[in-house]
Write a structure and sequence with these properties.
By secondary structure, the protein is of the alpha/beta class. Helix content is 37%, strand content 20%. Among the domains are: 80 residues, no CATH class; 98 residues, no CATH class. The chain has an eight-stranded mixed β-sheet, sandwiched between helices. Bound molecules: adenosine-5'-diphosphate (ADP) and magnesium ion (MG).
């Protein structure tokens, strides 16, 4: 009797498991197994990262080209989740030259923010980990491979050599401290040996420089007393106060009204020229790129599908995905009933196909596109595309 009951239970279990599989869902047991495996993997990454007294030789390095501030080199950043590994950034390489602005574009979810968070070492850990590749950052004194730099050392780099302007200033400004104190804290953390008067003077000057008229008054205000545009200016002041080599601006104007957006971008551009910093710009509106950026990187599903100078990518977009993105860009003075959007969906980040990730949405797909993921093709020294249409037109780099 007991054995009959067991077989019945087994039968029911196997049926449910099959039903879950057919739905593409994982059973509880499979998820537990993945979670166990993830814990093992992420624990090892964390152990490596939290080691004490790591010799500098492990993470201080050289630039491939000394004219660059940042070099992403085959960066892989994954999230180890209970339903599988999300390959959010899957082999991304590009550089940010000194004093230049590089725009990173692509649909939502393609890995832009994860790329920038990897550079800041601000990934949500332990799930999010850089699993392969390097991010070389020139801080002006030394060159660090951020992928290997210990967290303690990163604290001295973040905010001084590289700073970030986030989308929503209210989440980054502390509501209970006056804005002046918050800017001063950044200076105190990174620049030693300054007197309180010097720090206050620097802070008020910085508030002035980001175009706030009543700088002394604003110095002692709380974030909630400021408008959205003013708060974003304070964020920029905080980012620039230590004259970073690089500023990352991840959709910095998304929540602002259109005229304020234009003002903030103008401000960023002017300040950039004055302090000769580089910018990694992730715009929420492609129109901004042509005005602001020198180079463009187009990402799709965790990989770069095209990169080049702004004029190369804008005037001569090659990848069908870039062409689609351009078509969906709103143009001033041209009224359209509905913006074009690229048909189809981004592939499931846990189960990426082994052919070109864009193929299933591509209007120009050919038989050869069923083959392996297309390799990089340089059509000029700077213009790169990964698409079978250009493989024969390659100019060897
Ligand atoms: N904390 C997280 N856990 C799991 N997956 C994440 C997490 N953060 C981001 N991702 C995934 O990483 C991919 C890239 O996200 P993101 O870089 O934020 O895209 P975007 O280009 O819009 O900035 C997406 O598939 C997203 O779902
Ligand atoms: Mg993002």
């Amino acid at each position: 009797m007991a054995s009959e009951k067991n077989t019945l239970m087994d039968w029911i279990k196997s049926k449910t498991r099959r039903a879950e599989k057919d739905n593409g869902r994982l059973s509880a047991r499979e998820m537990a197994k993945i979670a166990r495996e993830n814990r093992r993997i992420t624990r090892e990454f964390e152990r490596q990262r939290n080691r004490k007294n790591v010799p500098e030789s492990e993470y201080v390095t050289q630039m491939n080209d000394p004219r660059n501030v940042v070099e992403f080199d085959i960066l892989h950043t994954y999230f180890f989740t209970d339903i599988g590994t999300v390959k959010a950034v899957d082999g991304v390489s590009f550089e940010i030259p000194e004093g230049k602005t590089v725009g990173v574009v692509g649909e939502s979810g393609c890995g832009k923010s994860v790329t920038s968070l990897s550079l800041m070492q601000l990934l949500p850990r332990p799930q999010g980990q850089i699993v392969k590749g390097s991010i070389r950052l020139n801080t002006g004194h030394k060159i660090y491979d951020i992928a290997k730099t210990p967290s303690k050392v990163m604290e001295t780099i973040r905010g001084s050599a590289v700073a970030m302007i986030f989308q929503e200033p209210m989440t980054s400004l502390n509501p209970v401290f006056r804005v002046g104190d918050q800017i001063e804290e950044v200076i105190r953390h990174h620049l030693v040996g300054l007197s309180d008067e010097q720090i206050k003077k620097m802070t008020i000057e910085m508030i002035d420089r980001v175009g706030i008229a009543n700088s002394e008054g604003v110095y002692s205000m709380f974030p909630h007393e400021l408008s959205g545009g003013m708060r974003q200016r304070i964020m920029i002041a905080m980012a620039l106060v230590c004259s970073p080599m690089l500023i990352i601006a991840d959709e910095p104007t998304t929540d602002l009204e259109v005229t304020i957006q234009a003002q903030i971008l103008d401000l960023l551009r002017n300040l950039k020229d004055k302090i000769n910093t580089s910018i990694m710009l992730i715009p929420h509106d492609l129109g901004v790129i042509a005005d602001m950026a020198d180079y463009v990187v187009v990402m799709y599903a965790g990989r770069i599908v095209e990169k080049g100078t702004v004029s190369e990518v804008f005037h001569n977009p090659l990848h069908p995905y870039t062409v689609g993105l351009m078509a969906s860009k709103p143009v001033i003075n041209r009224s359209v009933d509905r913006l074009y959007s690229i048909p189809g969906n981004v592939p499931n980040p846990i189960k990426m196909p082994n052919y070109c990730y864009f193929k299933d949405r591509c209007e120009r797909r050919m038989a050869v596109c069923n083959g392996e993921y297309p390799r990089e093709v340089y059509v000029t020294d700077t213009h790169m595309v990964t698409c079978y249409h250009y493989i024969n037109a390659q100019k060897d780099k």
